[in-house]
C-alpha cells in the first residue's frame, strides 16, 4: 500500500477580481476552493491513475474536515491525526487589471508533541511492501528533524520512504537509504550550499552524490527544462514540452504521483519519466491538477535520453 503524508494541509482559496483597491469593498468575479497539501495532491494523482492509496496527515477544524472529505469523495482512504487547531487557508488573488497575482500563504496550526507521537505511532505500523510519501512543509511544532526519525523507521521496518520536502535535514536522512528523493534543482543545490542552476552536468553531479551517500533513486524536476532520473545504474533525462504556464504550484506533486503510479504499473523507466513530465506540464497549464486528457499529446514533445548507463 502507498501512504501519502501531509503534515501541513491547507485549503487554497483562488479569487479572480477585476481590481483590488484598499479600504473599499472589492466585488470579485469568481472564486474556487480546493483541498491542498503536497501529499494530498499525490493521493489525488495516484487515484486518477487507478492506484489505491491511503492519505495520512495532521490537521484540525472544519478545514481538515473539508480536505479529508474531498479525499474520501474520490475513493481515497484517510487516516489523519486530529489536532485542536484549525488547518490553514491560503489565498491566491488574480487581479485582471494589472495581470498580477497575490499569494498569501499561512504557517498553519501548532502541533503538540503528543499529537506528533500519535502520528508517528501510525507510521510504526507500516511494513515491508509499503511506501510512505512524505511531502511538503511541516506545521509549527513539528521539527524538520522528524524526517530523520521517519527515515530510521523506514530502514528498521523495511518500508520504502519517498521524500519530497526542501528541509536541509533531508541530507542527514539519506544515510538511512530512502527509496526515492524528489527535489527540484534549487532544492538539490541548496543542500550542498550551491547557487541555483539548471545545468545538467551540475545537477547530475550532485544527484549522484546523494546516491553515493545512500539514496536509492532521485527524481529531479528542473522546471521548464524537464526532469532527470538518477540511480546507481543509470541517468536519464527528458525535456519539458512547450506549454502556456498558468500555475506551477502543483506540477512537482503531479510528477511524483505519476511516477509512483508508473512504478506500480511496471512501466519502463523511459515511458514512466516521459508520462510523468507530460502530466506535470499538464498541471502547470491549468489552475488545478491535470485530468490527463492532454497527457498523451504532450508526451509526443518529450524525448528521453540515456545520459549514463
From TrEMBL:
Keywords: ATP-binding, Kinase, Lactose metabolism, Nucleotide-binding, Transferase. One of its GO terms (biological process) is lactose metabolic process. Its EC number is 2.7.1.144. One of its GO terms (cellular component) is cytosol. SUPFAM superfamilies: Ribokinase-like. Residues 11-291 form the Carbohydrate kinase PfkB domain. Transmembrane segments: none annotated. Pfam families: PfkB (PF00294). One of its GO terms (molecular function) is ATP binding. Pathway: Carbohydrate metabolism; D-tagatose 6-phosphate degradation; D-glyceraldehyde 3-phosphate and glycerone phosphate from D-tagatose 6-phosphate: step 1/2. It catalyses: D-tagatofuranose 6-phosphate + ATP = D-tagatofuranose 1,6-bisphosphate + ADP + H(+). InterPro entries: 1-PFruKinase, PfkB_dom, Ribokinase-like, Tagatose/fructose_Pkinase. PANTHER family: 1-PHOSPHOFRUCTOKINASE, 1-PHOSPHOFRUCTOKINASE-RELATED. Belongs to the carbohydrate kinase pfkB family. This is Tagatose-6-phosphate kinase. It comes from Companilactobacillus formosensis. The lineage of its organism: Bacteria, Bacillati, Bacillota, Bacilli, Lactobacillales. The gene is pfkB.
Amino acid at each position: 500500500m502507498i501512504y501519502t503524508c501531509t503534515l501541513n494541509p491547507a485549503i487554497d482559496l483562488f479569487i479572480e477580481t477585476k481590481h483590488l483597491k484598499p479600504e473599499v469593498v472589492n466585488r470579485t468575479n469568481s472564486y474556487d476552493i480546493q483541498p491542498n497539501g503536497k501529499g494530498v495532491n499525490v493521493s489525488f494523482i495516484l487515484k486518477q491513475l487507478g492506484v489505491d492509496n491511503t492519505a495520512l496527515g495532521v490537521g484540525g477544524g472544519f478545514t481538515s474536515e473539508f480536505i479529508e472529505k474531498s479525499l474520501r469523495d474520490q475513493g481515497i482512504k484517510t487516516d489523519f491525526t486530529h489536532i485542536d487547531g484549525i488547518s490553514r487557508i491560503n489565498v491566491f488573488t488574480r487581479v485582471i487589471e494589472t495581470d498580477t497575482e497575490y499569494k498569501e500563504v499561512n504557517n498553519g496550526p501548532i502541533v503538540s508533541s503528543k499529537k506528533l507521537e500519535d502520528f508517528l505511532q501510525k507510521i510504526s505500523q507500516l511494513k515491508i511492501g509499503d511506501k510512505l510519501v512524505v511531502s511538503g512543509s511541516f506545521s509549527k511544532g513539528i521539527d524538520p528533524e522528524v524526517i530523520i526519525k521517519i527515515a530510521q523507521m523506514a530502514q528498521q521496518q523495511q518500508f520504502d520512504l519517498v521524500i519530497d520536502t526542501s528541509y536541509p535535514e533531508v541530507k542527514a536522512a539519506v544515510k538511512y537509504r530512502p527509496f526515492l528523493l524528489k527535489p527540484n534543482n534549487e532544492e538539490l543545490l541548496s543542500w550542498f550550499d550551491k547557487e541555483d542552476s539548471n545545468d545538467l552536468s551540475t545537477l547530475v553531479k550532485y544527484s549522484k552524490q546523494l546516491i553515493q551517500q545512500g539514496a536509492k533513486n532521485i527524481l529531479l524536476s528542473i522546471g521548464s527544462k524537464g526532469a532527470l532520473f538518477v540511480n546507481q545504474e543509470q541517468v536519464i533525462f527528458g525535456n519539458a514540452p512547450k506549454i502556456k504556464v498558468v500555475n506551477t504550484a502543483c506540477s512537482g506533486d503531479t510528477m511524483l504521483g505519476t511516477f509512483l503510479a508508473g512504478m506500480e504499473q511496471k512501466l519502463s523507466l523511459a515511458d514512466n519519466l516521459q508520462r510523468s513530465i507530460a502530466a506535470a506540464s499538464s498541471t502547470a497549464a491549468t489552475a488545478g491538477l491535470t485530468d490527463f486528457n492532454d497527457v498523451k499529446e504532450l508526451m509526443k514533445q518529450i524525448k528521453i535520453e540515456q545520459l549514463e548507463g
